[in-house]
Design a protein that fits this description.
One of its GO terms (cellular component) is membrane protein complex. This protein has about 230 residues and is α/β, with parallel strands linked by helices. It is about 35% helix and about 25% strand. The strands form 2 sheets. A 6-stranded mixed β-sheet has the order 6-7-8-3-9-10, sandwiched between helices. The structure holds adenosine-5'-triphosphate. Adenosine-5'-triphosphate (ATP) binds next to strand 2 and helix 1.
């Protein structure tokens, strides 16, 4: 395989170690995502999907193991280096959109680009292009409250891709939507991702959606089993 965009090696994570409520969530997890590969992460509730995604996205640190992104070993790096890597190379999508309510759809996609040093005109053009690709360009000037749940989530996808990341991490991206909307929104996400070379790890409980990705990874009892 080409050099992976994301490589996790021997990840171990225990919450409340040595205290009441100790829970070992990850036990020696290994995983590699090739450029352009879209993998589903499937697991029972509470099995550690969010923990795995947070560690892969440099929002949390493992007790042991390595996180390598784009060939760069991020283990033990400074907060500054992790923040820079997150901003430049990683896009996040959550179950809830977390859009800024006082800004329009387009502005929500422009702002992370400005924070990354992109010029205003270029950022706006990119926001419009992304909104067009998910079919909601006419909604560009609407604030999140004036958008449907599916539209809000499409905007969140565009925001995640605003800075052209190499890695997309999504935690139940359609989990808050009804089945029909979930289907449409998932198709929009695949449309955005396909052909970009972006690697994606998408946690979902939806086995139909999982089956449509390149690979399905199951997290069971703290380990990837397939
Ligand atoms: N900060 C924390 N402190 C203590 N325990 C935690 C913490 N975060 C998560 N846990 C526990 O670790 C386990 C895994 O949590 P995690 O959120 O990663 O699971 P999940 O697979 O994403 O769950 P779900 O599908 O329900 O969102 C759970 O038992 C949870 O209660």
């Amino acid at each position: 395989m080409n050099d992976p965009i994301l490589r996790l090696e021997g990840l171990t994570k225990t919450y409340n170690r040595g205290k009441p409520g100790e829970v070992q969530v990850l036990r020696d997890v290994d995983l590699a995502l090739a450029p352009g590969e879209v993998a589903a992460l499937v697991a029972p509730s509470g099995a550690g999907k969010s923990t795995l995604l947070h560690i892969a996205g440099l929002l949390d640190t493992p007790d042991a193991g390595r996180v390598v992104i784009g060939g760069q070993d991020m283990t033990g790096t400074s907060d500054r280096a992790r923040t820079a890597m997150r901003r430049r190379d990683i896009g996040f999508i959550y179950q809830f959109h977390h859009l800024l309510p006082e800004f329009s759809a387009a502005e929500n996609i422009v702002l992370p680009q400005l924070a990354n040093g992109t010029g205003a005109d270029e950022a706006r053009a990119r926001a419009e292009d992304l909104l067009d690709r998910v079919g909601i360009k006419p909604r560009a000037m609407h604030r999140p409250a004036a958008l449907s749940g599916g539209e809000q989530q499409r905007v969140a996808f565009c925001r995640a891709l605003a800075n052209g990341p190499r890695l997309l991490l999504a935690d139940e991206p359609t989990g808050n939507l009804d089945p029909a909307t979930s289907e449409q929104v998932f198709a929009a996400l695949m449309e955005l991702v396909s052909g970009t070379g972006l690697s994606a790890l998408i946690a979902t409980h939806n086995m139909e959606l999982a089956a449509r990705m390149d690979r399905m990874l199951r997290l069971e009892e703290g380990q990837i089993v397939g």
